[in-house]
Design goal:
Rossmann fold, globular, 2 domains, alpha/beta, Universal_stress_UspA, UspA, UspA domain-containing protein, about 40% helix
């Protein structure tokens, strides 16, 4: 591949670490990428996860291993990315975090500029449903992040022989003198029309989008469950600092309510995605 075909895999002691490593193997086999494995701790050679590492090495995929203690893990991940500029970070999703304590998964979404895949299950994406989540109330015509979400969802679906559907939510109608323009039917139709026009502009084929009323952190997980989605692709602007602590990010709020894998891309780092898609088109 012409783009930097390296993947950084973050491996901790969570039950989903092995699942994330297996997912990394499948993606590396499909893309020809090499793997950087970032361990949170030293790993005993008899642990089952080391059998997966041996399988990866035997398959011919290039692997480099790095080690960090828990207190420095995020800094080590960031330093590794700064040095190697991996096209993707993969990690098993940690759902055990507590309130008022920002979990590592959320910190990755806020601090790392490259796409982050958080793995939640071991089911194959092949011939499944991939959801591309966008905000239909935004000006999609000029929203480059949403365009990249749509392109990437379509690209992954093509590679996995899966089915891509677009999902989005619109806010409830407001009380207004112009009741017709604020009806749920009109708002839903406008959202669907905007998504369909954007797909046509990007020359992407799709069935009717899944449009629903309500906050996206509730509607998108509901749609994912309804469609039995294997993966949701979503964009984030990744607030940090006080704004992130108080307001959070839509992607983070959605993350905790999904049971499928989640691929999050950042507004500031989509060039690699475009290069990857154009390379394999």
């Amino acid at each position: 591949m012409a783009v930097n075909s390296r993947i950084l895999v973050v491996l901790d002691s969570s039950p989903l670490a092995e699942t994330a490593l297996q997912r990394s193997l499948l993606i590396a086999q499909k893309t020809g990428a090499s793997l950087d494995l970032m361990w949170r701790e030293s790993v005993l050679p008899d642990r089952p996860i080391m059998q997966i590492v041996a399988k990866i090495i035997v398959s011919g995929i290039a692997v480099e291993q790095h080690y960090s203690n828990a207190s420095k893990l995020l800094d080590e991940i960031e330093a590794c990315w700064q040095t190697r500029q991996q096209m993707l970070i993969i990690k098993g999703c940690d759902e055990s975090h507590r309130d008022f304590w920002t979990p590592l998964d959320w910190q990755l979404l806020r601090r790392m500029p490259c796409p982050v895949l958080l793995v939640k299950h071991d089911m194959s994406w092949q011939q499944g449903t991939i959801l591309a989540a966008v905000d239909p109330t935004a000006q999609l015509a000029g929203d480059h992040l949403s365009h990249d979400v749509l392109r990437l969802g379509s690209f992954i679906a093509h590679q996995a022989q899966a089915h891509c559907r677009v999902v989005g939510a619109y806010p409830p109608p407001m009380l207004s003198s112009d009741a017709q323009s604020q009806s749920a039917t009109t708002l839903g139709a406008n959202a669907e029309q905007m998504i369909s026009a954007t797909l046509a502009k990007l020359s992407l084929a799709s069935t009717a989008p899944l449009i629903g009323e309500g906050p996206p952190e509730y509607w998108i997980p509901a749609a994912a469950q309804q469609e039995q989605a294997k993966l949701v692709v979503i964009g984030t602007h990744g607030r940090e600092g006080i704004a992130g602590a108080l307001l959070g990010n839509t992607a983070e709020r959605i993350l905790d309510r999904l049971s499928c894998d989640v691929l999050v891309i950042k507004a500031a780092h989509t060039q690699g995605i475009a290069a990857l898609i154009n390379q394999d088109a």
